[in-house]
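Late entry, evening session. Most of the bench is empty. Finally got around to the prediction I had been postponing all week. Sequence below, unchanged from the version circulated by S.P.
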Amino acid sequence: MKGIRYIRGLTSLLLVAVLAGCGSGSSSAAGLTSVTINMGYVPDIQFAPFYVAVEKGYYRQAGLDVHFDYTIEPNALKLLAQGKDQFVDSGGDEVLVAGAQGLPVRYVMTQYSRFPTAIFWLKSSGINGPQDLRGKTIGLPGLYGASYVGLLAYLHSVGIPQSAVQLRSIGFNQVPAVANHKVDAAVGYAINEPIELKAQGYKVGEIDVYHRVNIAGAGIATSVAEMKRHPATVRAFVRATIHGMRDTIANPAQAFNLSAKQIKGLSAQRKAQLPVLKRAVTYMRAESGHPLGWVDPRVWSTTERALLRYGQIKHAVNPNSYFTNQFVSH
């Protein structure tokens, strides 16, 4: 599943950089357990909780020497199952699809408790609400993945059949496509494209998909083998990351400054990238009555039904088989 994974961080293309002092494959510090997480993208401010955990020493305090692998690898979950990395930062929908295909991988922590996908448009387009999408052209990266499933599930939830809109594959060009009226609306990563349009001076209308359909967003996945052989390591990594996420939510400006120590050139992008982080933390917040990082079974049931309805998985599966809260719960 690619949708959200490759939408994330488009505005950070200016930030393609070498992570200072934390490359994958570095030798582990004495007395620490070396682990690698595949981030699936370039260094990005939306990974701030991980950078905060590094800079504040939470991983080291947990006995871990953490390395980030920024390879954009479509088979990251397959490689995870084979033991190449210990963790992958992955969309929950991707993990469920991989699990349905027989890969022994599990989702062990939620980063985004709210599905960070949005339908957005220029206010000058005359769209004022969901029913105004009827008859309109909606651009997507492609007719696949979480963005596609999220859009169709949202339209279904408000009573709009797919036949009532025109879907157009536009690649990752949502911002210019909307700005130049190539499409009436587009689907993208709520943390990026709508903010980028606003930064360019456009008045933007937006619908957050999660208000109607909350699909499992990005979080941490590991292999069944890692869970069985090294549960203490999985727990330590999850808890330290949650600590970093908690600090990021509490103080985004501080988290930005700490991330700037990890991402070369980030400070120069503060005006554009700090609003991205502030928007991101609104999707990270804990569900009421549950700890930060908790995986919501209801969200995974919704995700499984949507994936099945729109052909992303071939048969019904038990979504509870592909995640666990054992490393999050106190």
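Two things to note before I forget:
The first helix runs from residue 3 to 7.
The chain has two domains: 3-114+216-322, 117-211.
Will write this up properly tomorrow.
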